[in-house]
Design brief:
The protein has 260 residues and is α/β, with parallel strands linked by helices. It contains ten helices and eleven strands.
Length: 260
């Protein structure tokens, strides 16, 4: 399926979404932000989905952020920027809130809004030649709170300041040191490695993956856990998948989870 500059392919319970503007290093247009939001809202309701992979076409870039050519028309003043932010933040929020695990598969450049896009995914894997950065100081732009928070939660305040204040483009090794990426993988066989990671995620109990994703997000918020939230940790024992999983473990068999 193709939606303008976004390609969507499905392999059983795994969806691979590709930003498809390789000639523009996969920068994102306003139309694409709308489509990303709509797609991830659909993904969220799909009971048969287990994992989503986001990548960029062409191998030269994951994404270099917003399409600067739209700035004169879409972001030339504060009022326009507020409208644009609602669009971009809405798309990123739909990715972050998708109940299924989301992987950013990074090859090449991952800068500006592209790096911000990667931070709302659950995990980030990159090739050895990938490069990262948010050099918006060169444009006189700030990173809004909604975009900065996911970055800071991943790399911490000091590294977030380094990324923004120095404004450098840095390599995969530094990104891994910061915790920005989970793993740096060889360029040869990268797509196969990502597919294997997604298959491993998809092979687990889907309700458990959703719980764990939600639990981790909840623990980033300072409010004390309610008794109801604490009790949710025990709900898995009443699921059909728990019975399937424990029985398969006892019989040394592969479980076939059903998500119920």
């Amino acid at each position: 399926m193709m939606k303008d500059h976004i390609l969507v392919a499905r392999d059983d319970s795994v969806v691979h979404l590709t930003l498809n503007r390789p000639d523009k290093l996969n920068c994102v247009t306003t139309v694409m932000w709308r489509e990303l939001r709509a797609l991830f809202e659909d993904f969220d309701t799909d009971e048969n989905l287990r994992c989503v992979i986001i990548s960029g076409a062409g191998g030269k870039a994951f994404c270099v952020g917003a399409d600067v050519m739209e700035f004169p028309e879409m972001r030339s003043n504060a009022d326009q920027a507020r409208t644009y932010a609602k669009l971009a933040h809405g798309a990123m929020e739909s990715i972050a809130k998708c109940r299924h695990p989301v992987i950013a598969a990074v090859q090449g450049l991952c800068v500006g809004g592209g790096l911000e896009l990667s931070t709302v995914c659950d995990m980030r894997y990159c090739t050895e030649n990938s490069r990262f950065g948010i050099p918006v100081k060169r444009l006189g732009l700030v990173v809004a709170y909604a975009e900065l928070l996911p970055l800071m939660q991943i790399v911490g305040p000091a590294n977030a300041k380094e990324i923004l204040l120095e404004g450098n483009i840095f390599g995969a090794g530094r990104a891994h040191e910061m915790g920005l990426v989970n793993r740096v993988l060889p360029e040869i066989g990268f797509e196969t490695a990502i597919a294997e990671i997604a298959a491993s995620i998809a092979g687990g109990a889907p309700l458990v993956a959703r719980w764990h994703k939600r639990f981790v997000e909840r623990l980033t918020r300072p409010a004390p856990l309610s008794p109801e939230e604490l009790d949710e940790s025990f709900h898995c024992f009443n699921t059909y998948d728990f019975r399937i999983g424990t029985e398969a473990f006892r019989n040394k068999a592969k479980p076939e989870f059903e998500g119920r």
